[in-house]
């Protein structure tokens, strides 16, 4: 077995986790904007959104866990859970750790949604936009594959897709306010 297998696993699962998070965010926004109208059932979108969100968290656990298993760069459990604990690119890693805790908070509050005030769930769910930005910064600053053309193209399309849908979301909210006002 290649001695760097954990390191490769961490890099690969990190990229797939980012893709899955992008997909979860996108389906969440397609759901909240009703972008596809009646063409797609909201229940189906919600299912997909929830599944992809949970999958993104599992892949993030693999991504960070593989670093602990790896002997090439040395990470302890504290290094992958506490910002600035790691010696290896502490700033770049801290963005990823912050994003991980936000994702966990979003997941837990969503699982407890019925027992929490709606405004709490909404406030925590809104941190997903900051989470998405933090993941992009983390990848751009820590990523070993950041100079890879294909990775750059993927990153650009992920950021453009989420930005576009967020823009649609803001316009949809304004439209809804205006129609309530009139
Ligand atoms: C890592 C996990 C997750 C992320 C990053 C995430 C992110 C998002 C985003 C970006 C939106 C659009 C928000 C908006 O337009 O205001 C959204 C909507 C939504 N999410 Fe999630 N989400 C995650 C997990 C979940 C889970 C587990 C549930 C389970 C119930 C859930 C339920 C919803 C619902 C119901 C909406 C629609 C809200 C609306 O129509 O206003 N999400 N999510």
Q: How many distinct beta strands? A: 0
The end-to-end distance, rounded to whole angstroms, is 67 Å
Shape: elongated
Helix content, binned percent: over 70%
Count of helical regions:
6
Small molecules in complex: protoporphyrin IX containing FE
* Poorly predicted segments: none
- Rounded mean pLDDT is 94
What class do helices, strands and sheet pairing give?
mainly alpha
Order of helices and strands: HHHHHH
Instruction: State Rg.
Output: 18 Å
What portion of the residues fall into strands of 2 or more residues?
Answer: under 5%
The biggest sheet, with number of strands, parallel, antiparallel or mixed sense and barrel status, is: none
Describe the overall structure:
This protein has 182 residues and is an all-alpha fold. The protein has helices at 5-33, 42-69, 77-81, 90-111, 118-142, 149-181. It has 6 helices and no strands. Bound molecules: protoporphyrin IX containing FE (HEM).
Question: How is this fold's topology laid out?
Answer:
Blueprint: H1 5-33, H2 42-69, H3 77-81, H4 90-111, H5 118-142, H6 149-181
Helix pairs in contact: 1-2, 1-5, 1-6, 2-4, 4-5
Bound molecules: protoporphyrin IX containing FE.
Protoporphyrin IX containing FE (HEM) binds at residues 21, 24-25, 28-29, 31-32, 46, 49-50, 53, 56-57, 103, 106-107, 110, 113, 125, 128, 169.
Looking at this protein, list some descriptive labels.
182 residues; mainly alpha; 6 helices; 78% helix; binds protoporphyrin IX containing FE
Quick gist of this model?
This protein is an all-alpha fold. The chain contains 6 helices and no strands. Helix content is 78%, strand content 0%.
